[in-house]
Design brief:
Helices cover 46% and strands 6% of the residues. By secondary structure, it is mainly alpha-helical. The strands form two sheets. Strands 1-2 form a two-stranded antiparallel sheet. A hairpin with a 2-residue loop joins strand 3 (118-121) and strand 4 (124-127).
């Protein structure tokens, strides 16, 4: 989960239309929020991902659902309130269900910074405050952010593949650094591969908070970066990508 910047309320969603849609929902319980001027900016806001688990939406039978942070069944007057709407996958939306977030709030990534509440340990998302009912723990538990088959197993697979990639680049960088003839063999390959790797840790990438944490805490990556910086081969593009990933990286301890 990463911090999201909510855009301004769509101009189409006027106060008059809001009231009309609220009244319609109260009478019919229709999905009055399924309007392109609502769904499109929400999806763009989350980089086409579920705002909670960061799975990509619109692929592999994962349609976006409009999630009501404050439950629409309990608070129908907020059914199209812009600040109450979030883009979610069906599983997270179902897991959250009718939780009363006024009484027991979970993380709202448009107002809270998830990294203030969560950290990563052994491929598991943990709450910095492990008190029962704390915002972080309730978020993890309610949304099942450590569901083994759906989320943890994919994390382990991706992290394993990334470890091999970083080890390979590290080996090539060590070899380059040990050369005494001044030739920079594999320089372009190293830099281009690192760019591709760091792009997997950007806000628009699937599981970006997890990927940023895995990459930026990897010993091979850190030494590779230090060598390239010492040789003045670390590019501005790499630095920009690194800094952006660092903004969403989770801590690895409380």
């Amino acid at each position: 989960m990463i911090k999201l910047n909510r855009p301004d309320k769509p101009s189409d969603l006027t106060p008059e239309l809001e009231k009309q849609l609220i009244d319609e929902y109260k009478k019919t319980e229709k999905s009055v929020w399924r309007k392109d001027y609502i769904t499109s900016p929400l999806l763009k806001m989350s980089h086409n991902k579920c705002c909670y688990c960061e799975t990509l939406l619109g692929v592999q039978a994962r349609p976006m659902q409009v999630e009501h942070y404050h439950c629409k069944d309990i608070y129908p007057d907020e059914v199209v309130k812009w600040e109450n709407l979030l883009p979610s996958c069906s599983q997270c939306n179902s897991n959250k269900s009718t939780l009363d977030t006024y009484k027991t709030p979970i993380i709202d990534p448009t107002t809270d910074n998830p990294k203030d509440y969560l950290y990563l340990k052994c491929y598991m998302i943990k709450s910095k405050d492990n008190t029962i009912g704390s915002k972080g723990r309730l978020t993890v538990d309610q949304l099942e952010l450590n569901h083994r088959d759906r989320l943890v197993t994919p994390r382990i697979k991706i992290a394993s593949e990334m470890s091999y990639k970083l080890a390979d680049i590290h080996e090539k960088t060590i070899t380059l650094n040990l050369r005494t003839d001044g030739k920079l063999y594999n320089k372009s390959k190293i830099i281009n591969t690192l760019v591709d790797i760091l792009k997997m840790a950007q806000p628009d990438a699937e599981y970006s908070a997890f990927m940023a944490t895995i990459i930026l805490t990897d010993e091979d990556y850190l030494e590779t970066r230090n060598i390239l910086k010492s040789r003045k081969l670390w590019t501005d593009e790499l630095e920009t990508l690194h800094n952006c990933a660092n903004e969403i990286k989770l801590d690895t301890e409380k």
